[in-house]
Amino acid sequence: MNKHIKSLLVLALVVAVLLPTAFAQGQTAKKDKITIGLSWNEKIHSLIQAWQDYMQAYAKEYGEKYGIEIEWVINVAGGDPTQQASNIEDLINQGVDVIVARAHDAAAIGASITAAHQAGIPFITFDRESSAVKPDAHVGADSYTQAVTTAEAFAELLKENGVQGKCIELQGDLRDMNAVNRSKGWHDVEEALGAWETVVQIPTEWDPGKFLSGTANALEAHPDANCMFVASDFAFEGVLTALENAGKLHPAGEEGHIWIAAQDVNPQGYEAMLNGYIDVATTYDAYFHAVELVHMAVRLAEGDPVGAPKILVPGRVATPATLPDMEFIWARDYKD
Amino acid sequence: MHIVRAKNPVAQLSNILLSHGFYIVMVFVLIFFSISTPHFFSASNFSNLLHHSAPMMILAAGFAMVVMSGKLDISIGSIAYLSTGVGITLLMKHDYPPAVSLAVVLLLGALFGLINGVIIVYFKVNPLITTMGTMFIYRGLGLLLTQSLTTSIAGNLRRLGNSSIGPLYADFILALVFLVLMQVVLRYTSYGRDLVAVGNGEEVAKRLGVNVKRVNLTTFALSGLFASMGGVLIVLQVGSHNSHIGLGLEFTGMAMTILGGVSLFGGEGSLVPGFMIGAWTLNIIENGLNHMGASPYAYPFVRGGIIFVAMFADSMKHKASLISKIIVKDA
């Protein structure tokens, strides 16, 4: 008898402990007000302002639709990982419901993710992933697919025009995984379709001066080059200047046109594509990044078990013909 | 400059290598890339190379002068960014005439440099700490002002920045004339002699009657002025002002200075030929690696390796100089 009572007591204890936990895990308490802490690593690009504006605008729209007041606490680290860690600590101390961070240092952000988790605050990495600690979710661009879709469309274009490409590749900063992925995507399609040969790879380190000098040097070294892959078009003026200085700046349709595949459709690339100098590019969709981020932040703030997903937005292929009618092109809204 | 008056052939060779090593490095990289790539050794490539080296020839000249005075100025990139940011805002957003915008850029450059000088001279703050602080402040102000947006300049200004006179680009000719003039100033004026004296030791310079404060203030103001001038050339060449302008240029400037034989210990070096050769050497390496189609991962390694060797040589030269002083004193 005693044994039975003891067993029942133990069972009751286990149920008493586990039941509320099980309820809590399945619970998605809808909140009236959510505070999102947003930590920017730096703000040296108009894309970041675009992201922030889109996030705030979409959160307002979403909040009005579902009756949630979404507030933002935003700080900027000025390109310093230590400052970013301190800024995130501030967000934790302010008791925000969810933290979103664009990491300056993929490894250093791990300590901030751990600190947020210890405080019971969910953490989303945005645009740049953490290499150290897994966050609750990641939202960003699929830079590999972005390059692949561009390269596939470019291969089709060269084929249509009967061109066998000899391409110059302007790479980004190889410490940036987006730059590495883009280069990989480009070369994977090159290998698969054989529509061009990359004759030289120029590392620009995202320095606009090197977009200019690198293009000029590559054109000098490979006078027979007839195409280019530009890892990002944010400094496309340097490419245009180098082509002009070499007497090779001709829009599509003119003899001597250098076929160009690019990435992002930044304000400089947007103009260059409309003017016929960039033939194909895949957009870096700031608006859709913002939408996905708001959805994920609300779910996490409400305690929804999301399962640590990676939400990667692949971007859309743009050409001079399709670009004018495409919606949510941030380069159009943030035209300098 | 011969460091040790030695009769031993090995010591003489060592003297030559330490004193003229930067010429040897440049000639070596020139020969190497000319042999290993088919299009490197051509007039058009050299013209391009000199064109792309022109902004840094001016931008980092002030840095080299600060180093000659025995100090460091790592705010040059941020000064270039902020001063040209103000200029581009006046020019493109408020329709100021280009000449007025240019004058404002240059005045601001000199002012930002002077602020560095005042903090160092009057508040006795270490130059590295001072300019590291202002490096962040100036860049922050620039970002605030421009909202980190990229601003394209008018096509005619971009064409001006890429115009040529005969086979050479105009900005290179400008940079060359500028460096020669500054070298004349350093060599033949009392300011130049005082600068070298300060670089060899402020206490000794004071005892010799040099107005050390004035020399330091002037040198930092010139460093700021030249940084803004170089910034203008970058904007004109690239065709836009953007938030990457000046990023990391303090290290490029340092590399050029060291490769040009300007001693990090101060009191030694020249703008022409020294610093100029250093600027070209770094550009030749970059250009040559582009021509070779080198692995993108090789660039920092090659650049870093050559700079390390130059720094090592500078350190050896300094050591030899100290030994020679001791020998002379004992004699």
Care to describe what's here?
- The complex is a heterodimer of chains A (336) and B (331).
- Chain A is an alpha/beta fold and 336 residues long.
- Chain A has 2 domains: 103 residues, Response regulator (Rossmann fold); 142 residues, Rossmann fold.
- Chain A contains 11 helices and 12 strands.
- In chain A, strand 9, helix 9 and strand 10 form a beta-alpha-beta unit.
- In chain A, helix 5 packs parallel to helix 6.
- Chain B is mainly alpha-helical and 331 residues long.
- Chain B is built from 14 helices and 4 strands.
- In chain B, a hairpin with a 2-residue loop joins strand 2 and strand 3.
- The longest helix of chain B has 33 residues.
- Chain B is globular.
- Classes of the chains: A alpha/beta (336), B mainly alpha (331).
Q: Can you give me a brief rundown of this structure?
A:
The complex is a heterodimer of chains A (336) and B (331). Chain A has helices at residues 2-26, 46-66, 81-93, 109-118, 143-160, 177-193, 208-221, 236-245, 267-274, 286-301, 330-333; strands at residues 33-40, 69-76, 98-101, 123-126, 137-141, 165-171, 196-203, 227-230, 259-264, 280-283, 310-313, 317-318.
Low-confidence stretches of chain A: 15-27
CATH architecture of the largest domain in chain A: 3-Layer(aba) Sandwich
- What fraction strand of chain A? 15-25%
**How is the largest sheet of chain A built, in terms of strand order?**
2-1-3-4-5-11
Distance between the termini of chain A: 83 Å
The oligomeric state of the chains shown is heterodimer
Distance between the termini of chain B: 21 Å
Number of strands of chain B: 4
| pLDDT averaged residue by residue of chain A | 90
Q: What is the CATH C level class of the largest domain in chain A, in words? A: Alpha Beta
CATH topology of the largest domain in chain A, by name, is: Rossmann fold
Largest interface: A-B, 43 and 42 residues
Number of helices of chain A: 11
Q: Tell me the strand order in the biggest sheet of chain B.
A: 1-4
Global Rg of chain A: 24 Å
Shape of chain B: globular
**Radius of gyration of chain B, whole Å:** 20 Å
